[in-house]
Amino acid sequence: LILAVALSSCVNASATTTPGLPTTVSSSPVPTISATEASRPAPRSLTLWVAPSFAPDSESPAGVLLTERLRAFEQIHPGLSIKVRVKSTDGPAGLLETLIAANAAASALLPDAITFSTSNLEDAASKDLIIGLDDVLPIPEAPDWYEFSLPAARVSGNFFGYPIASEVEILAYRSDLYTSPPRSWEDLIGEPRSFLFPAGDPLATFTLTQYLSLDGFLLNSDEDPALNPAVLSDVLSIYNAALSAQILPFSVRQISSTEQSWSALQDNSSASAVAPLSSYMLNHDPEKFSAVPLPTQDGKGVGLASTWSWAIVTQDAERIPILAELLAWLSAPDFLGLWTHSLGMLPPTSTSLAAWPEGDNAALASSLVTVTQPMPSSSLHLTIGPVLYDAVEAVIGGGEAPTTAAQAAAEALSNR
What we know:
13 strands; 16 helices; four-stranded mixed β-sheet; alpha/beta
C-alpha cells in the first residue's frame, strides 16, 4: 500500500527520451572534482522529483530547456541516465508526503534530489529526510544572491536548500485605461477604474504584503506572533477609501486567489488586479496589459517571494559528488536565467537575472528584485493570515471601522 501511494502520482520523464527543441544555453563549466571523488564508481542513474512547474517536457519552453540541459549533462557523463518524476506540489500525492511514504517503504524508492517549497523544506529537514549541504555545494551569499532568496536555503540556521526560483505577485493593469502606471494607492484610487485583489484568501497574503510594506511587525519582544494595530488600521483604511471611491467592488470577497483576480482582469471585469508573475509572463497580451510591483503608499512597490529550492535526499557517499555537480550545472547563471524567464519566476541571483532576454519582462523583474521580501515562515503565515482575513472581512463585508477591526485582530492574536 505504501509503495502504491509513493508511486501512484509519478510521471516518468527520462531526460534521455523526452523530445525537445535545441536550446541556446551555452555549456557551463562543470565544478572541479577531486581525484578522490573521480576515483569513486560513478552511478548509472540519478532520479529527480520535481513539482509540475518544473516538468522537463516538450509542451513548454521551460520544459524543453530543462530537458536539453539534462541531456547535455548526460553527454559529458557517458553511461549516466537522469530520470525525472513529476509530483503534485502538496497533498497526499505531493512531494513531501510521497517522500515520507517512500522513506518508510524502502530506500530504493527514494529520489536522489527533490524540489521543495520553503515550508516543505523545513518539514523535510525536521524529519531528517534531506541532508545538509555545507560540505556539498557553495553556500549562497549576498551580494550575488538576492536577499529574498537566502532564507529559503536555511532551516534553523543550517544549509539545506539550494534556491532556484521564486514566485511573486504583481499588479497587472490595462495599459489603455491608465494615464500612467498605478504604482501607489493614490494612483489607483485617483483613477475611476476598478481594482481587484483576493480578499477571500483565507491567509490574506496580499494584506500581509501591504502590512509589511508599512514596516509592520509580526513578532513581539517575546518572539510570539503579534500585529501592530496602528499599521494594520492604515492598511484597512486604504481598503475603506477604495470602497468609498467605488474602485474596490464588494465582490472581491468572493475572490480567493490571485489566479482568479488575474482571470477577471483578462475577462475585462476590472482595469487592474493582483496576479501571479508566472501567469502574467506566460499568458498576457503585451499590447493590452502591463505590470508593476504591488502598490504601496509611497509608490515604491513591494512583493513577497515564495522560493523553491533543490534539496538532496540520498545519503550515498558515492552519489553525492555527481549529484552536487548536477545541481551546480542546473544553477549556472546562463541556464538558470533563461529557465526562470521561461518559468515566469524570479531567479535567486543577479547573474541569473542578467541572462534574461531584454524586454518588458526583464525590466519588470529588475524592479521586483529591489523591493521583494522573503515570505514569512509557513507556521507564522498560517497563524497570522486567518486573523488578517477576519479583519479584512470585518471592514469590507461588515462595514466595521478600520481602527476597530485592527484592534480586534491584534487582541485575537495576543489571546491565542
